[in-house]
Amino acid sequence: MDQNQIDALRYPIGKFTPKDPYTAQDFQSDINRLESFPDRLKQVVSSFSALDFNTPYRKEGWTVLQTIHHLADSHLHAYIRVKWALTEDNPSIKAYHEKLWAQTPENNLPAEVSLNLLSAHHKKWTALLRSLDDDSLAKSFVHPASGATVSIQRMVQLYAWHGDHHLAHITELVRRNFDR
Fold first, then answer.
1. Is the pTM of this model over 0.90?
2. Which domains does the chain have, with CATH numbers?
């Protein structure tokens, strides 16, 4: 498999590229994507068997189950980072090792656990995001791994992409491998 094929499997919707300028309409669209994400994910995996959940989306990639649990972990981190940015002055947030987190024992729980968590969490998260004014959206945090200052507005773009990115991993797996 050549590098282009590997990249297509790793980034089925392309790598994240922030919009600049980023309009109020873009922001509302991204919140809508975040809000609908748990339902879109549930719909794709609703007929999955245990074997389907334990299928990697690509060679050397996570299984669908690990991906779903990762999404819950990652999106919870994003919410907490927004809360830190809103309540502290440009705080340095705590990074985490997502590959190691994907291997912790609770990630063997049924997908429904993280699917339900994502549903409840995204309701709360998008309610918070919809309440923010432009000054709040400009608030930021510092990511310790990159040293980058990240605004809440940029986070919204990134996580709307992140959900769609991993959803595409799963839908592409279904398209390639499952007889549905």
1. yes
2. 23-177 (1.20.120.450)
